[in-house]
Amino acid sequence: MVNCSNPDKSGIKSTKKVVLDMSRIESILSVSLSSLRLCGFASLREKPLALGHPSRSARSAFRPLLQLLAILLLLTATAPADDKLPTEADYYPITTFEIPEGVVLEAGAFQLLPDGKLAVSSRRGEVWLITDPLAKEVRASQFQRFAHGLHEVLGLAQRDGWLYVTQRCDVSRIKDTDGDGVADLFEVVNDGWEVSGDYHEYAFGSQFDKAGNIWVVLCLTGSFDSNCKFRGWCVRITPEGKLIPTTSGIRSPGGIGFHCDGEVFYTDNQGPWNGTCALKHLSPGKFVGHPGGNRWYDIAKEAMGERPKDPESGSRFIAEAGKIPEYEPPTILFPYKKMGQSASGIACDNTGGKFGPFAGQMFVGDQTFSTVMRCYLEKINGRYQGACFPFREGFGSGTLPLDMEPSGHMFVGGTNRGWGSRGSKGFAIERMDWSGKTPFEMHEMKAKPDGFELTFTEPVDTAKATDPASYNMTTYTYIFQASYGSPEVDATTPTIKRAVVAPDARSVRLYVDGLQPGHVHELHAEGVRSAAGLPLLHREAYYTLNYIPAE
Ligand SMILES: [Ca+2]
Hints:
The chain is mainly beta.
């Protein structure tokens, strides 16, 4: 096979080793065949050639010619085959908004308003309104400043004509009472937590849940400690403005949001008690891993009960989950430097197909990699777990907030102040749209008692998908420890015994010997092809197998 770099790694030309494989070469050459047709190669024109699929007779008739062309192509291997393949941009183009000159709009949160304007908050404490944010091009003239003087707004929600802002020190609500387009009424809704002035004490706020609450995740004071009230906690702010301590164990959030079923999740970042970045489920009464903030159980007893036992440093997530009833292990681990380095905003595709084939799935940003990842969640033994997949890279700055609109458009905000990012701009506001074309992707990765089931967005080439050699799987986990981060540990290599393709060619059952509870199962499906001959747009998946289903 032609072992090139993933085509979505934009700008990286493959120089890796090239091994001959006729089926792949034919796929490369389908383009050449089309070119020959265009050039008036008469006998080819008589064959009913579908683009990308030379018929069997055409293949045998022209095999010597194909082989010659193949050798020529390989000899001039400076033109990698992957350049001919579709890219992420063919399916999910990005539109970059022009930000007014002189404005530092480090995006913190989005909220679409009933009048169709998009509110975007900034880390510099401003709120801007963007008129017609779904336009083909969005110009600086469409921006108007609505509020300023707030403190690092990382949450927006709207209700009854008020815009609710989660800022570092409180949840407030603001309103334009005289209709001049600028907020003039500011009210504190709740300020029941404290700040010390430490730069790390971020407060990320959700939109409203079904009961009308805003959920706020409060970063620790730095990485290890909680120097003032409720740092390291998730709290809910009720419609009446009351604060309810909800979940302990937070370290350093990068975003908060809802799954399509209304459950609340946040992202936490690599550091103490977090071997790598992760998506975590926020359930009332639970503890999600970092005990630094647990000193506040004394004032949270009414909602939370007694302080849970601290986890044992050097242990593993699943071992501690077996010992500490309140502990909720990470839902999805994002392997460090593979999927990203700084997990951020969360958005769910509840558009019923307007954003493409991933309805019901979750999207999560990564600030360092300037990406949006995709997550498939399922509930096993009453707890969420699932797989993450690469989805889209190439955003302009460090991805922070994501917001999916019912129309099927996703707004993506960026900032890289404090932490560098692959996207080199200091800040960015962008929109990701679905082009209407369906990418060939792994759609879901479901845990089974004896392996996994993969579903695909397009039918697969049955012969290739049935070959266990089309797949490669390894497993590993992370140390659950008080010191910073963790390498991948406890690595194993399970055996994929059989791969069975369903009659509709839309799914494959992988029968695996050696599943490891508590491990990430890293799958590479390099050999899989669609029935139309394309490789997967993204060939890797990472399933966090906390629990193996009984059936
Ligand atoms: Ca006003």
